Amino acid sequence: MKNLALFDLDHTLLPIDSDHEWGEFLVRTGAVDPLEFKRRNDDFFEQYKAGTIDPVEYLEFALGTLARFPRKELDAMHAQFMAEVIEPAILPSARALLRQHQDAGDLVAIITATNRFVTAPIAKALGVEHLIAAIPEEDEHGNLTGKLLGVPTQGVGKVTHTHAWLAQIGTPLDGFGRSHFYSDSHNDLPLLSVVTHPVATNPNAVLATHATRLGWPLLHLFND
């Protein structure tokens, strides 16, 4: 039977948080108000790490920021972001782990709470075809409206989106021989708890404690 390998993105395959770094990039390049935007971006990041973030409130903030810019300008900004921030952060250890599953013939996907505008080029750079991410609404010209389509891909939302994606491709979760999910965060415990092979990857303290108690493997991808 074919196996499934799911990967969180930020602090799992990347040693950074791409969503937060995108906000820092906007501040650094002068695209947004440097004081107010940075304050809100940092506040949301701390809430995420604490597991208290309201994903809809955050996504409305993030997508509302994107909606200020024409799509052509956004795409040019993102290309600069990839070159300056993301590509230097893609490490050989992450590529090797992905390639291990790809070479084994596993179905590989990235599932992330960060929106698809930010993450689609990152998934492509990592060589991963399938991406499950928060979906921004676009108008008829491809510009972002600032609205979210569907439910956020965070917490139990990752389970919902995983099942929906697997239904589209015609294989339910229990139709795989093994299902892996690699994540760094306790925010992903709902999805980690429903796969057959959860892997706490670069885990935060809460996840490390939980994983150790349940006997889940701990993988320190950027230290080994």
From TrEMBL:
Name of a matching Pfam family: HAD
SUPFAM superfamilies to which the protein is assigned, alphabetical: HAD-like
A GO MF label: hydrolase activity
Keywords: Hydrolase, Magnesium, Metal-binding
Gene3D superfamilies: HAD superfamily/HAD-like, SG protein - dephosphorylation function
UniProt xrefs under NCBIfam families: HAD-SF-IB, HAD-SF-IB-hyp1
Name this polypeptide is given: HAD family hydrolase
Organism: Massilia violaceinigra
